[in-house]
Design goal:
229 residues; mainly alpha
Length: 229
């Protein structure tokens, strides 16, 4: 009966939505969109993104196919909506910390959380639309990562800093979790600790290089602060 009620609501939506006051139309729009999104998430968790079809989502959400297409004109639009929903409701990751200890702790915590919804993580990490959604925050995350790394890269060359940022960015990424889980059979906790170890190893090397670069710069300036001849 509940499903029949949803179907009737969906079939009547075209005729009634223009008659409703704006606030009710908005509520109806958001409710319908939420029904669709919850159906998408359920199908993704059960079968993954490769098997997702729009007619299947319509059946699972209890709304008409025409209603789904009104909200999401293409399958890609549906996946974009889903990845935005996933990012906001399942993996609401806070801003990247501006210190290395904080970056590592956040990654370890995230890796455990990602274990709870592995297919949703794969949707975010492996689909073109998931990557597009993540890219919106990429510039800001790179800025924060660069700030966090400054304590061990301030005296390094631009090329060395760029390499460090690239490796850290790769480690602090859903793709690393997917690869280590799928290729090595590791749990989220194991992935998190392995990535922490890799970061700590890199930090130790960067710190040593950074201190050597600072010392070389000091020696070049000479004891009085001027460049040695």
């Amino acid at each position: 009966m509940a499903r029949l009620g949803h179907e009737r609501l969906a079939s009547q939506s075209d005729e009634t939505r223009d008659e409703l006051p704006r606030s009710l139309r908005d509520q109806h729009h958001e409710l319908t969109r939420e029904l669709i999104m919850r159906a998408v998430i359920k199908r993704l968790e059960e079968n993954g993104f490769a098997e997702l079809t729009v007619p299947e989502v319509a059946r699972a959400s209890g709304v008409s196919l025409r209603t789904v297409y009104r909200h999401f004109p293409t399958r890609d639009d549906l996946l974009v909506g889903a990845t935005e929903w996933i990012a906001a409701n399942y993996f609401a990751i806070g801003e990247l910390p501006d210190n290395l200890d904080g970056v590592m702790e956040q990654l370890v915590a995230n890796a455990k959380t990602w274990d709870e919804h592995p297919e949703l993580v794969r949707t975010m990490a492996l689909t073109r639309v998931g990557n597009a959604v993540r890219s919106v925050r990429r510039v800001r995350r790179l800025e924060r990562l660069r700030e966090a790394l400054r304590e061990v890269t301030a005296n390094l060359s631009d090329a060395e800093r760029r390499r460090a940022e690239g490796v850290f960015g790769h480690l602090n990424n859903m793709l690393a979790w997917v690869t280590m889980r799928d290729e090595n059979g590791m749990s989220g906790e194991e992935v998190g600790e392995a990535l922490r170890w890799a970061m700590e190893t890199l930090i130790e090397d960067l710190r040593r290089r950074n201190e050597a670069a600072a010392k070389a710069r000091t020696n070049k300036r000479g004891p009085g602060g001027s460049s040695a001849t």
